[in-house]
Protein: tRNA dimethylallyltransferase
Amino acid sequence: MSNYLISIVGPTAIGKTALSIKLAQYFNTDIISADSRQFFKEMQIGTAAPSTEELSAAKHHFIHHKSIQDNYSVGAFERDALKKLKMLFETKQVVIMVGGSGLYVDAVTKGLDEFPAIDKTIRQGLNNDLETKGLKYLQNQLKALDTKAFNTIAIENPHRVIRALEICLGSGKPYSSFLNQGKSKRNFKTITVGLTAERAIIYNRINQRVDIMMENGLLHEVKTLLPYQSLNALNTVGYKELFNYLNGEWPLDFAISEVKKNTRRFAKRQLTWFKKNETTLWFDYETDVNNIIKQLNKELLPVKN
Structure:
């Protein structure tokens, strides 16, 4: 097996994009984005998508290639990403993948889990509960049925909560019991590089990033998307909070503080997800890139020779 995918993971605002570009330049290769929010061309500032300068520093794939009005699933991304990797591996032995969306990363590196078919009326009922009783009600229901799933999925995402609940209710088994059962084989080897830092540092970097986003025009970006606020792609941190401000429900200062708080919660869940992979090579976010490259070259010894 001579093809290697170097997957860079870690919490938001930790420096994954910068590292991915340096590694892509060193290995003279391309970058695949596994950040599900950066797929959408209308969402640039609030998703911390790579800048024009960063995009020109290395060839990127799956950045702003979809519209918020497109129905683009993790399954579709898995198919598209594997097709792109097959093409890239024809001329390159190493490809870089970067992103903080754990499910999308795992879809490429391991394959998606298989779930039983569920009666559509169950999801319809859960959608009605979301509208009438709220997300908190559904979260508590999931916590009672599957604590493991409650602690690992993106609990602030109604789509993910409803998906887990419909599996629990429709199958009579915990959603988490279907995870990591039969994984698809890949014709490449994955080396996962994780960036991390002390929690206080991560949280401070998140707070600073949100302030920079606001300075760069996040509020204006969200305002242009207000007519589409009901779309699933926009039901995400950084957008839904500012929608509440624009709809007159929250003061701006409070909305910004909620963006920071919810992003910090998201980062905590990212780390929980990524820490499950015991083979990840973890580095402090300030580690010199040459030290990371040195470790990677040890892992890539068969390729280098």
Q: What stands out?
A: Strands lie at 4-9, 31-33, 60-61, 94-98, 189-196, 281-284. The mean pLDDT is 94. The first strand starts at residue 4 and ends at 9. The domain at 4-112+184-304 is CATH 3.40.50.300 (Rossmann fold).
